[in-house]
């Protein structure tokens, strides 16, 4: 491999929602992740402009765990409005080891994460094997091109579903259905850009 592979890091994550899955039905995940060296991070993830992007807010928290009051007031209000003040409970968990590769091109920085471990839902453990591609900086079309290349060479399925959504499906929840809103392409649009848009609306 021309790109160095990092050492493995163990990541343990708990996902929170109401008993009815209110956050899930709005495309939102709320998690508490334990990083190495005792660092805990609370993360809010919501829908972005398309299936390839997410609105993400991370807050470092102490050992006491989930505390939505540490988010900004707008995010707190959004969570409370969706949940109707119903209590947030632990719904799913993941425990995996991650190795990463950073791809630096002339235009972009792309992180490829190799995750191997398990996720737990309804008291049952299931294997987790995932390749996650994240555009850190630059051209989204390049990230899509790398995703296609990896999926083809490794013979794996290309998806935009998150770990939280995968857990929810196994737990028996239905994911919210979003209507496609596809605008006409510019005459000079690149093939990778067209594919990225189509995938983001159709996957």
Radius of gyration: 18 Å
User: What proportion of the residues is helical, as a percent range?
Assistant: 10-25%
Mean pLDDT level:
84
Anisotropy-based shape? globular
Enumerate how many helices there are, as a single number: 5
Q: What topology, given as strand order, has the largest sheet?
A: 4-3-2-1-5-6-7
User: Assembly type of the shown chains?
Assistant: single chain
Give your account of this protein's structure.
The protein has 203 residues and is an alpha+beta fold. The chain is 25% helix and 37% strand. The protein is built from five helices and seven strands, in the order βαβββαβββααα. It has helices at 22-25, 73-83, 140-154, 163-170, 191-202, and strands spanning 9-17, 29-35, 39-47, 54-61, 89-104, 109-121, 124-137. A seven-stranded antiparallel β-sheet has the order 4-3-2-1-5-6-7. α3 packs across α5. The mean pLDDT is 84.
